[in-house]
Design brief:
The protein is α/β, with parallel strands linked by helices and 286 residues long. It contains 10 helices and 14 strands. The chain is 36% helix and 18% strand. The strands form 4 sheets. The chain has an 8-stranded parallel β-barrel with strand order 3-4-5-6-7-10-11-14, surrounded by 5 helices.
Length: 286
């Protein structure tokens, strides 16, 4: 996914770094707290009926959303969400916006009440390489400082192609090593990390202080994995039904203090799948 403007999920929710806890039937600890949704999940619904889509989200118990309201002015969109008990802890920005006018991104984030801004795509032709990474590192460090000075945390959202080989390591390691931790953090999309050939749990543990946000998305068993950054959206399946270790990821994410979790489902059956994903998350006990 590259841009964002839409949303969803269901029922009271769980998991977050600032959660309360209760005891499960077998004495396991269940962490209760907000779960969010990535607005892009509802890209086919929100532009046609923003009010109706937000109402659906409210009915499902979602209390956090990532993304802006598209053509809806930020302040108005924030009010619409707030009236339904939904906050907007994170929003998005394109690579070009970061390069050309990072201050405008700060202004939009503040209008939305967002503490985080994520970018989900580094423009490149053919295979992503070191030259593309170097360009991104310069833009991310420079724009990240502007955002940090404005009280906003910048997070880059890897999309799978960053996990291509780079010497003895991966280009993802190159990005992490050369971006300034004071100005550049990261949002892991567990689907794209796994699709690129990496292990999400290992990467969360390897760089525990760099990951701040999480996109939760499962992959249909048997889906070919590669570093193109592209895949059939219908390989997005309800959490817990695919081949990604969502339970292990959530346990690790809780341990390292991930700030916010956003379900993202790009499939054509998002209305059926997102409620199943929320139900699965609510069933997890540690």
């Amino acid at each position: 996914m590259k841009n964002l403007i839409l949303l969803l999920s269901t029922l009271p929710i769980l998991f977050s770094c600032d959660t309360t806890s209760k005891m499960g039937s077998a004495g396991d600890v269940v962490f209760a707290g907000p779960i969010g949704v990535q607005a892009y999940s509802f890209r086919n619904y929100f532009p046609k009926d923003a009010v109706g889509t937000l109402d659906r989200i409210q009915e499902m118990g979602i209390t956090e959303i990532e993304g802006d309201g598209g053509r809806i002015p930020p302040a108005e969109y924030k009010k619409m969400c707030a009236e339904r008990g939904i906050s907007i802890p994170s929003t998005g920005a394109s690579f070009d916006e970061l390069a050309e006018n990072p201050q405008a991104i700060v202004d939009k984030a503040k209008a939305l009440g967002s503490k985080y801004v994520m970018c989900a795509w580094i423009p490149h032709e053919d295979d992503f390489d070191q030259a593309d990474a170097d360009k991104a590192i310069e833009v991310f460090n420079r724009a990240g400082k502007v955002l940090a000075d404005g009280g906003v945390t910048f997070c880059y959202h890897p999309h799978g192609y960053e996990f291509a080989k780079h010497g003895d390591a991966l280009l993802m390691d190159y990005l992490l090593s050369n971006t300034d931790p004071k100005y550049v953090s990261y949002e892991m999309d567990v689907y794209w990390c796994y699709h690129g050939g990496a292990d999400p749990v290992s990467y969360l543990n390897k760089y525990p202080k760099r990951w701040k946000l999480l996109h939760l998305k499962d992959m249909q068993a048997g889906t070919p994995r590669n570093t193109t950054g592209h895949a059939d959206v219908e390989t997005n399946v309800p959490l817990g039904t695919g081949e990604i270790d969502i339970a292990g990821i959530m346990k690790t994410a809780k341990k390292i203090g991930i700030a916010h979790y956003f379900i993202e489902d790009e499939s054509s059956v998002v209305m059926e799948q997102v409620p199943k994903s929320v139900a699965y998350l609510r069933s997890l006990k540690y």
